[in-house]
Design goal:
Oligomer: heterodimer
Distance between the termini of chain A: 16 Å
Radius of gyration of chain A: 23 Å
CATH superfamily of chain A: MetI-like
Largest interface: A-B, 31 and 40 residues
CATH class of chain A: Mainly Alpha
Largest sheet of chain B: 8 strands, mixed
Number of domains of chain A: 1
Largest sheet of chain A: none
Distance between the termini of chain B: 57 Å
Strand order of the largest sheet of chain B: 16-17-18-13-19-20-23-22
Order of helices and strands of chain A: HHHHHHHHHHH
Number of strands of chain A: 0
Helix content of chain A: 55-70%
């Protein structure tokens, strides 16, 4: 039915610019892109746009009873327990959370997909070794592993990102492994072997595009989990070191005061949801754009 | 048309009346009519065939009658389906439950997927019996056994406690039929009931359906693409194309003198056993493929330490050769190892023995060392939809072999792609499209073009036309023929379809359980079969001629069901071939 409907009307080749243009044509994806762009800008220009010093503990920031101030007035999003400006801390925290969410998650995705696809395609001993290693990582309590790794290395943002990546790639590799196994049995992969294509070509030109939707779904899911895992690590003192803010550790610092000062948890939580949602929307649209069988639909 | 005037045999009691049935399916471009004003009557005891190629709307009709149209994409836009006093189109899900199984039952194409793999045969049959209150709980098991006896299942007591995977395809379809007949329905709808089965099993199942129909007086609505099955089963035929009725006639009239152009073309395209023209003897005497004592075995591992516990002897000691410009056909039923041979030739499965391609030995070659030889041998698979990468434009895929072998680059690739497309009768404008934008036949042309890109000497065609509609099948066969004449290609043509093989083959090799049982020139093997298995295969082919009664299947004596699985260290007794006549050999002792 979609077959020879309007052969000429559809865009054929997909350059990066072309993909971006198509993303912007979709309202939801465009919204996601704008959110991501705004967060990146906020992270880069944090020192310029912060309304106050995020580290300054001022008495003005607390009321007479020593409780944090609610949003409004001098402090647009209120203050935290130490009287620091929440808006400024959230803006500066964007840096940490973006780096963790994108970098740590990115490493996890690449590593997980790489291991899964390799084990899935080659099978045999390669798969046995890689997958037993994956099982081992899965059996290990993720938090314990993270604490051990973080304790061995001097805590820094990069180390935290690597630790989180180490913990998070496992699920991805499991899922990709299973899916590659079934894809590798499919006839078009058999055809590639009959043609004489090498494994690199089969893996990257033929298998990877079919796995993209799974990778995107898992990748976007991973963003919120990594941001929260960073918060957990910070809470345990092995993550981002105070007074450096991150969305996650702002939540954890203030969670006990949720009933009296809900904004301290609400705003950073909202940002995490927004970040995950934005990547999700863009990811969904990207998947549809890259799938030629869905071309021309919205 | 109105179906009211042509009433078939039987006692004339009307069981189903369909009037102006129109079905629409929602698509991105709006509602598309997939069935347009179909009308017919179905009388007790008669068989009406709905025949047509893919997309003709024949399965939609069956689903509409069963109230199983996929909601909400498809809907009945207009028309009525009446069973006696009951109008079915307006019936809700609750009302339909009383109709299904009780009054109308359906058999589907794929018996494996229609049975629940986690339930025993007994439970599945009893479920139907109890759901419709046919009998009391205590009597259900007995009743189930009776049903299995009715469908002539061997060892019915044992089958009751078995799971679907323990049964063969034919047995599963018998169980499906038993379930369909559990409530003694007035109408049985059979949607391509034998398409997924081997030809000898198909013949048995068709015989069974006919017998049961005569016993119960059930009206049968047979949906099929196979004109041979139509000729064998139907009293009346409705030929559909793109949802429109092309012709409606009693079966003999249709086959003797089709009135519509489409029915005429469709019948002409059906390959008929024994009707193929003579083929010129291959001129070149050079052998391009020489296979000697080829064996392929797959290990079955199990147990605590995952040791090899048994082996499947998929191919056992096979020898053959293919000359230049020659087509060698490998024929046999599913599981006989014919596809495995094709894969072994391309080095896709591990094998033992000797294979020479263009005189070069390929034994013991790694995948990398095998690569240069792949320029001489290429493969076209069965399902063109599955063998093309959905995420890559066909233009890129067609020249991918050239890229892989480093034979062309840049603008040369584009020129080559255009040339290949023209060669297989496709327009070069379509190069930038993706596989889903093509029809099945066009996709198979793309696959042929891809196989041709390396200018191979041999093409292994593994069931390459089996998934195509007959009219398209004929076109693709013509294309393969043409390429052979012009480029001097040789084919290893793997197929289960005797009629197709009759059209294309120079020589035929008949395989069973991994071994050759008969081989020789086409005319010798197909016109004068010696081995009982070959005879059975040929006798089972449905003949597209309603005036000719298919002879009963020859006895299966000596070729009973057997398995190619053996314990480690043992194997099948090698069959020995004896000369019957010039080049014609069969596994028999007496010539």
């Amino acid at each position: 039915m979609s077959a020879a409907a309007d052969p000429a009307a559809r865009p054929r080749r997909k350059g990066a610019g072309d993909v971006l243009r198509q993303l912007l044509q979709r309202p939801r994806a465009a919204f996601g892109l704008i959110v991501i762009a705004a967060m990146v800008l906020a992270a880069v220009f944090a020192p310029i746009i912060m309304p106050a010093d995020p580290f300054a503990q001022s008495f003005d920031g607390l009321d007479l009873m020593g409780a944090p101030l609610p949003p409004g007035g001098e402090y647009p999003l209120g203050t935290d327990l130490l009287g620091r400006d929440l808006a400024s801390r959230l803006i500066l925290g964007t840096r940490t959370s973006l780096i963790i969410g994108v970098l740590a998650n990115g490493i996890a995705v690449v590593l997980g997909a790489g291991v899964g696809i390799t084990a899935g395609y080659f099978g045999g001993w390669t798969a046995a070794i890689l997958m037993r290693f994956t099982d081992l990582m899965m059996a290990f309590p993720a938090l314990l592993l993270a604490i051990v790794l973080a304790a061995i290395f001097q805590p820094s943002l990069l180390i935290v990102a690597l630790v989180i990546a180490m913990v998070n790639w496992v699920q991805m590799s499991r899922v990709i492994y299973t899916e590659t196994r079934s894809l590798a049995e499919r006839e078009f992969i058999q055809v590639q072997r009959a043609i004489g294509s090498g494994p690199i070509r089969i893996l990257f030109r033929h298998l990877l595009p079919h796995l993209l939707s799974t990778i995107i779904v898992f990748g976007t899911l991973g963003i919120s989990t990594t941001v929260l895992l960073e918060a957990t690590l910070s809470y345990l003192g092995v993550g981002v070191q105070p007074p450096m803010p991150s969305w996650g550790n702002i939540i954890f610092e203030n969670q006990t005061y949720f009933s009296s000062a809900p904004w301290l948890v609400f705003f950073p939580g909202l940002l995490i949801v927004l970040l995950a949602l934005a990547f999700n929307l863009v990811g969904d649209a990207l998947r549809d754009i890259l799938d030629p069988t869905l071309r021309g639909r919205h | 048309m109105s179906g009211a005037e042509d009433i078939g045999p039987g006692d004339g009691r009307l069981v189903l009346t369909v009037r102006d049935l129109t079905i629409q399916v929602a698509t991105e471009t709006g509602a598309t009519t997939v069935l347009d004003a179909l009308s017919f009557d179905l009388v007790r005891g008669e068989t009406l065939a709905l025949a047509g190629e893919s997309g003709s709307g024949k399965s939609m009709t069956a689903l509409a009658i069963m109230g199983l149209l996929p909601q909400p994409m498809a809907r009945i836009a207009q028309g009525s389906i009446r069973m006696g006093d009951t109008e079915l189109t307006g019936l809700g899900e609750r009302g339909y439950r009383k109709v299904r199984s009780n009054r109308i039952a359906m058999i589907f194409q794929e018996p494996m997927t229609s049975l629940n793999p986690l339930m025993t045969v007994e439970r599945q049959i009893c479920e139907v019996l109890l759901e419709h209150g046919v009998c009391a709980r205590g009597a259900a098991s007995k009743r189930a056994l009776r049903l299995l006896q009715d469908v002539r299942l061997t060892e019915p007591e044992r089958r009751l406690s078995q799971y679907p995977h323990e049964l063969s395809g034919g047995m599963r379809q018998r169980v499906m039929i038993a379930m369909a007949l559990a409530c003694d329905p007035e109408i049985l709808i059979a949607d391509e009931p034998t398409t997924a089965l081997d030809v000898t099993v198909q013949a048995e199942i068709l015989d069974l359906i006919r017998t049961l129909q005569a016993e119960h007086g059930t009206a049968l609505l047979m949906i099929t693409h196979d004109m041979g099955v139509v000729a064998e089963m139907a009293d009346r035929v409705i030929v559909l194309r793109d949802g429109k009725v092309e012709e409606s006639a009693p079966v003999r009239e249709l086959f003797a003198a089709p009135r519509s152009d489409y029915a005429r073309a469709l019948l002409a395209a059906v390959p008929q056993l024994g009707a193929a023209p003579d083929r010129p003897a291959p001129s070149g005497a050079r052998k391009v493929i020489e296979v000697d004592d080829l064996s392929v075995r797959f290990d079955i591992s199990g147990g605590l330490f995952n040791r090899t516990v048994a082996r499947v002897h998929a191919v056992e000691g096979i020898s053959f050769y293919i000359r230049e410009r020659e087509t060698l056909a490998l024929v046999g039923e599913s599981g006989c190892g014919k596809s495995t041979i094709g894969k072994a030739l391309l080095g896709l499965v591990p094998w033992e023995g000797s294979i020479r391609i263009g005189g070069v030995q390929t034994r013991g070659r790694s995948r990398a060392a095998m690569r240069p030889l792949l320029r001489d041998i290429q493969m076209v698979f069965q399902d063109p939809g599955a063998s093309l990468d959905a995420r890559m434009s066909v233009g890129e895929q067609v020249v991918e072999p050239l890229r892989v072998h480093g034979l062309a680059s840049g603008s040369e690739l584009a020129d080559r792609a255009e040339w290949l497309f023209r060669r297989v009768g496709l327009s070069p404008d379509m190069l930038s499209r993706y596989p889903h934008e093509f029809s099945g036949g066009q996709r198979q042309r793309v696959c042929v073009a891809r196989a041709l890109s390396l200018s191979p000497k041999v093409i292994v065609a593994d069931e390459s036309v089996s998934a195509l509609d007959v009219s398209v099948q004929a076109q693709v066969l013509d294309l393969l023929q043409e390429l052979q004449e012009e480029d001097g290609l040789s084919y290893l043509f793997i197929s289960h379809d005797m009629a197709v093989i009759d059209q294309v083959a120079d020589r035929v090799v008949v395989m069973r359980l991994g071994e050759v049982v008969e081989e020789g020139p086409r005319d010798a093997v197909l016109r004068d079969p010696r081995h009982p298995y070959t005879r059975r295969l040929l006798a089972a082919v449905p003949v597209p001629d309603p005036t000719r009664q298919r002879p009963p299947l020859p006895d299966a004596a000596g070729i009973e069901e057997d398995s190619p699985i053996f314990a480690v260290g043992s194997g099948p007794a090698r069959v020995e071939l004896h000369d019957m006549s010039q080049g014609h050999r069969a596994a028999l002792t007496a010539p």
